[in-house]
Amino acid sequence: MLRRLLASAAALVVAAAAIVFIDRAADAAAAAVSITATQASNGTTTLTYRATVLKAGAIREVTMAIPAGTTGRVTSINGTVSSVTSTVLRWRPARVTNVAVGARLAIPLYGLKLPAGGPWTLGFKSIGTAGQVITSGAGVLQPLKTYTAAVAVKATNPIPAQTTNLTYQATITKAGTLGAVRMQLPTGATGTYSTINGTLSVDGGYATWKPKSPLNVALGARLAIPVNGVQLSRYGGTMSLTVSATTPTATVLSSGAGSITFIAPPAEMPAVAAAGFVAPPAGCPDTWPTTTVENAKAGTGDWVIPTSMNGTLAAYLTQVSASCGDSVDLKVTSGKPVSVVAYRMGYYAGLGGREIWRQDDVPTVVQEAPTTGGASADGKPLRMTSAASWSKTLSIPVDKDWVPGTYLIKVSDGTSATYAPLTVRDDTGTKHDLMIQQATATWQAYNSYGGSGFYTGGVDGGSGRLTFDRPYNEGQGSGQYLTLEQGLVFWAESKGLDVTYWTDNDLDQYGGQLPTRARTLFLPGHDEYYSLRMRAALSQAIARGVNVANLGANTAYRVITFTDETRRAWDIDRYTDGYNSTTWRYQGDAYASQPLLGADYICPVLGNTLTTGSGWIFDGVPSGTTLPGFIAGEVDYVWADLYKQPGQTTLASGTGACRSNGRAAPMHVTAYTAPSGARVLNGSTFAYGCFLVGRCPSNWTVPSPDAASQKAVATIVANIAEWVSRGTIAVPSETTAAKIRVAVPKHPLQTNTQP
Length: 755
Fold this sequence. Notes:
The longest helix has 18 residues, at 707-724. This protein has eleven helices and 45 strands. Helix 6 packs across helix 8. It starts with a strand and ends in a 31-residue tail after the last helix. The strands form eleven sheets. A seven-stranded mixed beta sheet has the order 35-33-36-38-45-44-43. Strands 4, 6, 7, 8, 10 and 11 form a six-stranded antiparallel beta sheet that branches. The protein is mainly β.
């Protein structure tokens, strides 16, 4: 007989019923009542009541208490079930059942749906046909144990781009016959794939295991299915992988997902040989004046080009950098006589530059228009814009008067003017406290003078090869020097630091010498484009104890290849997968910037406020100071799924608004100490250099940081210099930002809007 049980009884009723059923304490103990629960295949619960017979006789009925709130359609065997109350059921045998003293009764009740909670104390009473109590007592029903799939995925070698064995684990939540286990594979995985105790098939990103013969599994059983020979993708991260165990008829026995993390350590880099230094050429010194001595010389503000002189006049140099004894050719298009003046950029009592060399009344021609074209070896259009065919205007000798530093060659016809930038190296073998790198490869990527640049016309229109054989159209011909880099130069020389300079091209050519050239390297605001040799040299230098402060963001993000030893042009692969294939990270997570420098690029921003906190980086700046517009240009943050250097800390954080979509973008300033003892800091915003001179790009939300912000950032940079250099750089205690005494035009800045 099937009866639906009521679910409205109070807990008190169950307790009272249980007490009534107990005749005597001695009988209750002797009855040894036990109540067990098991889960049926249809999801209901079976309760089995057991008790020892205390008096012989024929059973008339058995009454059993159930938990208040129980529902279901209840049946039994060898008898019928009816309800006495909402918490008591009566079982009557189908035929006369005689029991002897000591016999063990076992009455099952099927189809129950238990409420939440428990344990419950439930009474049991058996009455004989003569009205005598055959047995009576109470037992404790523990809540039915439930199981979750509790999926876990384990790997013997969880390294992206390597081979591993995976073990998928799951708990059976419904008993039955196991027919198959379907397991989601990591994204992008390939492999030879093998297993044990069954067969394995792989399709659509899933592996399906089937036992060799039907396998009965109990509730709570733990599966462990190996999938061997998995070749992980070069991209890792934390992945959620699903597992589903089913019967041959597709009934689900277990289903869920487990997370597993695949983190790639920094990629191994090739060794970069360190060529020796050659003796200085005749007429060149063995040592150069100190920064303090050099900046005590008379400066001038004449190096500045007012915006009123912006025009069509353009010029470029046939070398990115030079050293004493070199001769550099200048190519100009004007058609008018021009003056050519070389200015060394520095402090010079706040004037920012010193005249080193000049030549007036230099005749020029109107050069032919640059050409755009070319194709790669496999026929891909390179769209390289070049002015290599321009005729030489004059040669400039770099002699003993050219103290190593950053230079702007100003070319003016009296109506319009332009710059041609040059970096002069110290090739004497002197080891300096600080080296500042110029991001020449990045300047060229954003250059579209005369035709195409990397970003011209979107992914299908930009250049796949770029050359230095043309002028820059940013920064009045200075590239991104005036917008992002002059501030670092001005600050370092105003403090009298032992500083020297080189370029991206020099890092590629002379990178093996970095540990012998400098103790600490400053990377500038936007140093995005790196060749393999550049990245290898930087990694090797850190491993050999060179400290690095990346006072920028989006560094070493895109991968380039110089076309030959002149390093006058470089290639970038935009054809395999558009902008994606141009990035270092496309080579795999091991090649991301974060494993090397501490954080990785997220997006461009126009300028958001940083609020200072505590910690050494803000020593001398009150906590809670706001720096409007400091989170600007492009920003980095610590990606959870990329390698994080041991002991790495976050020194400062803030939020910008992505220029491309308006979404919030976290910014993290990070620091770590490498096993070599080298200290590495990632500044994660473009703004350090321009804040040091109070002049940022004109298209930022804060193009003119106020004096308080300028002073605060000068203090922050001083703290960075002292920490990262391990005390070898001692910045003078006066941290008031040096004031540049000439009005330098603000320039717009192009930044990457692609992922």
